[in-house]
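User: I'm writing a short report section on ligand binding and want a predicted complex to refer to. Could you take this sequence and flavin-adenine dinucleotide and write out the structure as tokens? A short remark afterwards would be nice.
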Amino acid sequence: MQITQEFDFFVIGGGSGGLAAAKQAASQGAKVGLADFVKPSPLGTKWGLGGTCVNVGCIPKKLMHFAALAGELRKDQVEAGWINTDMQGKHDWNRMTENVRNHIKKLNFQYKNQLNNQEVKYYNKLAELEKSNIVKLVDKDGGVEFIKSKFILIAVGGRPSYPEDIPEIEKKVITSDDLFWLPNNPGKTLIVGASYVALECGGFLNGLGYDSSIMVRSILLRGFDQQIAGKIEDYMVESGVKFINEAIPINIEVIENNRRLVTWKQKGVQHSDTFDTVLIATGRKSDTSKLNLERVGVKTNKNGKIICTIDDRTSVSNIYAIGDCVEGRPELTPTAIKCGQLLANRLFGGQKKMMCYQFIPTTVFTPLEYGCIGYSEEEAINKFTQNEIIIYHSIFKPLEWNLLESHYAQACMIKLIVMASTRRVIGLHYLGPNAGEVVQGYAVAMKLGATKEQFDATIGIHPTCSEEILTLTAVKGIDNPQKEGC
Ligand code: FAD
Ligand code: NA7
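Assistant: Sure. The structure tokens for the complex follow:
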């Protein structure tokens, strides 16, 4: 075996975490290489450098969510007095996806440039571990080379998983790996799954005007606050999304005109309908199966997620792992990035700082957005007791909605979960417009240990939705959450 290059740090995976770690290590003076290779989806969709977030995740998802909200704004414009708003206008899928694609391609190009500028050697090759310090790289034509590195970082992320019991399902459905790159609009779509990928995609497809049904096996948004999850469903139903609850698909057949005949079981009864597209959003599995982990001794759990210590070390001392492929880590871009940067600083910058996973904010970009930080009501009750926490709540109507008949008053909600003894705020939930922008700043306060009294003492900005978080007085179980007045 001939070694073509030697590195201090070699990164497998050019997504959120891998790119951040590689750039940071290079800025600390390390000699760095990075391999990124996109295995096409079963339908053949492929994309460029940047990983899931940039190509088939956060970025196209948020742009399409925005496109859907922009369409809904037309209704608002009419109610706000604009006369010539064309409500009959249909959505142009190709125009939207072309603009989304152009943006993504710009980002792919920028990432390549950044690696180049920082002297990170980029390999558009599929990597696997040959030995604990040797990586085998295979290009698209089968050409092989080997590199050696003192430290190796695995940041290979995950890919969509499919329900197992439907024959040849991968050829009959799409996943989020295909949706954002579809050449034609998806038409009438069945979305299978009920976590945030399913709800976000179902939400924006409906907003863009495509008939959307979401098939829910058990509950919506497992792991998130369930009262808010229920309100998200209410709002989506009000917006036109259909929910097929307590149901699982049992067969998918390709019929004439390339449509899909889907049969499902709901509470023991069999139903069927035809769709133009079936989008499977039933979870993701880490992309570790072809890395040869077992051979070099990197331990994984039964789902293929890599088991790491808190300092991101795998069971092999010079091999590290970060991001979606690691057991127990939040599957979020900013956590993968931060984790990669901190690791590079520890390995090459003489620093000691570890990643802190407490009070990580996140937002579900459903038609009415949901931002949260810290404990859900269920988690708080589970961890503490009902008596140890106080829940403040409010159902409110954004001021702007008073111009708009089409929005219903009970949709938006805020919940603060507070420790009764210390008054520390340990959970914040906001369901309303611009949730990501609203909750971000509160994460700073919560990381600093802010109490309910410190929230109360903070002056709000009037009139905004965010100020509602600072003026909560109604206690769940005692007071009515419905807010009155301005
Ligand atoms: P990835 O970004 O997945 O990168 C891994 C890279 O490694 C990929 O490019 C892959 O092709 C490559 N690779 C894999 N195997 C090999 C190999 N053997 N050799 C070479 N290269 C390889 N997060 C948020 O924070 N906000 C959101 O709004 C959000 N929305 C999302 C929406 C969707 C539809 C999805 C699917 C995800 C979303 N996420 C969101 C999650 C976010 O995209 C991931 O948490 C993040 O991309 C994880 O980064 P990573 O570095 O671990 O892996
Ligand atoms: P999640 O969060 O793992 O959720 C998977 C969803 O799919 C959940 O609602 C499951 O229902 C449902 N599911 C799983 N298997 C099936 C089958 N076989 N049939 C029907 N429904 C099923 O996955 P996501 O893709 O939404 O998100 C994964 C990560 O990607 C996320 O953390 C983001 O960071 C990006 P259940 O609740 O188990 O009954």
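A remark for your report: Residues 362-470 form a domain with the Enolase-like; domain 1 fold (CATH 3.30.390.30). The CA atoms of residues 11 and 395 lie 47 Å apart.
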